[in-house]
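Dear support,

I submitted the protein below through the web form. The confirmation email said the job was done, but the results page showed an empty box. After a refresh the structure appeared. I'm attaching both so you can tell me whether what I see now is the final result or a partial one.
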Amino acid sequence: MSLLSRLVGKSSDPRAEVRPLWHRVVEIAREKPWYAQFGVADTVAGRFDAVTLVLALVMLRMERDKLLIEPSVRLTELFVEDMDGQLRQSGVGDLVVGKRMGKLMSVLGGRIGALREALPQGDAALAEVLGRNMTLTEGADRVALAGQVQALARQLDAVTDHDLMNASITR
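What the results page shows now:
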């Protein structure tokens, strides 16, 4: 970023606009009820699943508005950047990071597709999808989890584009 840009407050980071939304996605995914009440496993895999679940719901909301397509690409880039950093911090070497990132992107894409199909079909269909796509604790109530996911999807649908981009998603 040039000195002039910094002085006038302009950012050259094209992802700056969606960074608050990315942080809000992660905050929502870290909320205790996902783990304590709805049976998402409080493990690395379970937390990743919670992040991709919330991100997928946000991405589905964004894909309905042409003006949010470009910001959704930037949001995906932040996901990639964050996951890449997490992998490297956990000791995954440079030679393997690319393969793992490809797999993680595939998981996100699969989750978006599965949710796109299951959400309109109701809690039973969604519970099946969540059972296949989430790391859950033994005895987790998938129907209760589906209800929570439906509630979040409805909440995201009710948020204006402006509020979504400002990460004004109250819970």
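Response: this is the final, complete result; the empty box was a page-load delay. DSSP finds nine helices and no strands in the chain.
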